[in-house]
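hey so i finally got around to running the thing on that chain from the lab meeting. sorry it took forever, my laptop kept dying and i had to restart like 3 times. anyway pasting the input first so we r on the same page abt which one it is
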Amino acid sequence: MREKGWKVVVLSFPQSLIAKLSPLPEGVTRIVLEDMSEEHLKQQLTAIANNYGPIGTFIHMHPLFSVSHNDGIHYLDVDKAIVKHVFLIAKYLKKSLNQAAQQGRSCFYTITHLDGALGLKQQDNFAAISGGLFGLTKSLNFEWESVFCRAIDLSPELDTDKSAKYIIAELHDPNRFITEVGYGLQGRVTLISEPED
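ok and heres what got predicted. didnt touch it at all, straight out
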């Protein structure tokens, strides 16, 4: 994204939630939240806008949490806290993203690691709460008509290079009628509706 001239700022969650921070390319700024309070989040988003310019694109890369392969659905507290914060981020970026959309393309993206098929592979070895990001993204797509909203599910089996390639491809997808897509070893998938027999 920096190669395309974008100003990139990474907002990271506190290390009490995400212990290991991924390395960033040279020239990319990272801001680490000190806590998970709504007020602190609002302050940091305001500081980003003041120091780097209005926020025109938001991409949330949801962490991949290790869960056991035993039966049952997994509800992790850390997952819940992060998803709640993404809802709050949407609240505070509404004005900025909608204003940016008047000047060109503005995006709100959420990226999860369910199973690469929007959670429909009938596996239960992923943290289920992150699936709520699909609902948020679809709702914002209706509410923010001028903002390009997309939820992407990347299979945990994909390597970093392929994942990045798929995310960039989705950023440039002209089809605004699709709100959610998945990528796995099978390629790109999305949902379609079909008449019932």
